[in-house]
């Protein structure tokens, strides 16, 4: 029975990816949600951005939901991917090298740099646990954010952000007319991150990480080394965040200092809780829903409809963050399992906890 269910879930996942892949070829309109038909550049960029945020949230969910590591510095590695690729493209490779080789080489260099950064931060931060671990990761993230804003040697662009040097970027990934290709890149990043997360969670290391989250002392008694497993999870999640960061740089044609701040990491935490900590696909749902709300509520807040409301309603509803905060509070209060936990709650007739059972979490 379990094998058949797994096959059905896998088939459904493949079908969903295929539908998303052909979405740019369709003319689907969802008024109030999407800014236009799905084949238009503006809509494709919005959906692609939502998928990259979903991929980033999925990597954070593996660290927080699987290993129980509450990090306030995950945005550092997303920024490392975005800024790392941008700076490497600007400085890497002899002039006589083909642009395609420089582009691929820059990606490899950025991934290696992201791995080294993740291993260094993880090795130091994991010397402590709990809130101390969160504070150490926060310190590293703040240091990275300050470094980006200081703009050493003019490398990061400071508060103005870093513009993408398109000289060595393939023509198929540059310009509004190629937004469709960037959309497929974002989809590829999301699928890649999901498959890596799935593989890690179902591996022996993933099971040990989950056991460590529940009872680290018992894992030590069994002769296992929780530190090594947690470091592995930390590094993999951080490198995946860097991959999402590189996709972000290509999609946005640049990177802004905001992506390196602790506030951005807190946004990821909100997304994961909103989607459902105990569900792998909850991070994806949360990332897409949050991004669409964040983008579209801004347009709603400035609409004539809101402007015509009485002051008691117009003032709070004109602030998108107020609406998002209210929705988050309602989800936490009435949907403990997040958005992804709604089907389980309907089946069981009660609010399910995100970590209620391993079977539910693996759905």
Question: Gist?
Answer:
This protein is 70% helix and 1% strand.
Secondary structure layout:
Layout: H1 2-22, H2 41-66, H3 75-91, H4 99-125, H5 130-150, E1 162-163, H6 179-202, H7 204-214, H8 216-221, H9 226-252, E2 254-255, H10 262-275, H11 280-301, H12 304-307, H13 311-317, H14 320-334, H15 342-348, H16 358-361
Antiparallel strand pairs: 1-2
Helix pairs in contact: 2-6, 2-9, 2-10, 2-11, 3-4, 3-9, 4-5, 4-9, 6-9, 7-9, 10-11, 11-14
Strand content: under 5%
Can you list the strand order of the major beta sheet? 1-2
Helix proportion of residues, in percent?
A: 55-70%
Q: Helix count?
A: 16
Q: Termini distance?
A: 14 Å
Mean pLDDT: 85
Provide the gyration radius in Å: 21 Å
Shape call = globular
How would you explain this protein's 3D organization?
It is built from 16 helices and two strands. With 363 residues, it is mostly helical. It is globular.
Highlighted features:
16 helices, 2 strands, two-stranded antiparallel sheet, 363 residues
């Amino acid at each position: 029975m379990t094998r058949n269910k797994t096959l059905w879930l896998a088939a459904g996942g493949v079908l969903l990816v295929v539908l998303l892949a052909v979405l740019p070829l369709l003319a689907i309109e969802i008024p109030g949600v999407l800014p236009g038909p799905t084949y238009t550049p503006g809509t494709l960029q919005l959906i692609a951005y939502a998928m990259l945020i979903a991929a980033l949230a999925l990597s954070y969910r593996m660290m927080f939901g699987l290993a129980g590591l509450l990090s306030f510095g995950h945005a550092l590695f997303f920024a490392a991917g975005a800024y790392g690729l941008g700076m490497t493209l600007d400085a890497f490779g002899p002039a006589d090298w083909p642009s395609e080789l420089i582009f691929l080489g820059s990606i490899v260099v950025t991934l290696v740099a992201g791995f080294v950064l993740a291993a260094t931060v993880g090795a130091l931060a994991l010397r402590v646990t709990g809130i101390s671990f969160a504070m150490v990761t926060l310190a590293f993230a703040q240091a990275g954010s300050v470094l980006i804003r200081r703009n050493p040697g003019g490398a990061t662009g400071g508060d103005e952000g870093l513009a993408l040097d398109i000289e060595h970027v393939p023509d198929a990934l540059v310009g509004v007319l190629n937004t469709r290709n960037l959309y497929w890149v974002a989809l590829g990043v999301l699928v890649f991150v999901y498959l890596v997360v799935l593989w890690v969670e179902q591996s022996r290391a993933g099971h040990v990480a989950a056991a460590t989250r529940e009872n680290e002392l018992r894992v030590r008694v069994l002769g296992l080394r929780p530190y090594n497993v947690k470091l592995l999870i930390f590094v993999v999640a951080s490198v995946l965040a860097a991959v999402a960061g590189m996709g972000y740089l290509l999609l946005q044609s640049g990177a802004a200092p905001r992506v390196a701040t602790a506030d951005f990491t807190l946004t990821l935490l909100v997304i994961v809780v909103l989607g459902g900590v105990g569900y792998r696909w909850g991070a994806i749902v949360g990332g897409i829903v949050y991004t669409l709300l964040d983008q579209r509520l801004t347009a709603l807040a400035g609409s004539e409809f809101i402007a015509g409301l009485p002051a008691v309603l117009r003032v709070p509803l004109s602030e998108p963050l107020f609406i998002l905060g209210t929705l988050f509070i309602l989800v936490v209060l009435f949907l403990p399992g997040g958005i992804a936990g709604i089907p389980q709650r309907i089946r069981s007739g009660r609010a399910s906890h995100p970590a209620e059972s391993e079977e539910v979490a693996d759905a």
